[in-house]
Amino acid sequence: MSSSKCIFLTGPPGIGKTTVILRTVDLLKKHGFSVGGMITREIRQGRSRVGFEIIDILTNRRGILAHIRFTSGPRVGKYRVNLRDLEEVGVCAIMEAIRKCDVVVIDEIGKMELFSDKFVKAVRTALNSGKIVLGTVHLRSSHPLAVEIREGRMEGVSVIYVTYQNRAILPEKILREVLSHVNRRDR
Q: Could you give the CA distance from residue 33 to residue 171 in angstroms, rounded to a whole number?
């Protein structure tokens, strides 16, 4: 049996994957787990989404992952990706969580993030670290890492498809899965 436990959420954009992650993080902290890593959030101006920010869960350090006003960087739709902030905030947050925390959060393994080789390496390091990893993976990315995770080709990795019907119960379900894993591992 693998000593790692990695749980990834997938589903369509806007279904609530990041919300499930954040609620699960709160539950894990209440149960005494130290949690680090990165989350992404929309940047909105009025009703319009204009970009995405990256937030380091441990330090609350923030960076801009992508924005419609950027003129350089890889293009994803109407956005340009800011690899510098992705690596200086996101990748550093993942690596620090591997060193210091019980649980490593990676939200999201998506088209924008996968432009960075350093990000891909950090995700693989987390997956092989023996730590509990909680993340989200883009539903349609064809990047080999995203496909490997989504299709369950890695030992110790489980994938949950988020729907409107299950998203409210998922944080408790994931908490139970983590607690069960920790109890099995500690025997």
A: 14
Tokens in use for 40? 């992404």
pTM assigned to the model:
0.94
Contact assessment for residue 122 and residue 95, using Cβ atoms and an 8 Å cutoff: yes
Specify the 3-state DSSP secondary structure of 8: strand
Please give the torsion angle defined by the CA atoms of residues 136, 41, 168 and 14, in that order, rounded to the nearest 10 degrees: -80
With beta carbons less than 8 A apart as the criterion, state whether 97 and 129 touch: no
Domains, the chain, with CATH or none: 5-38+85-186 (3.40.50.300)
85 secondary structure, DSSP code: H
- Each residue's pLDDT tens digit, 177-187: 999 988 876 65
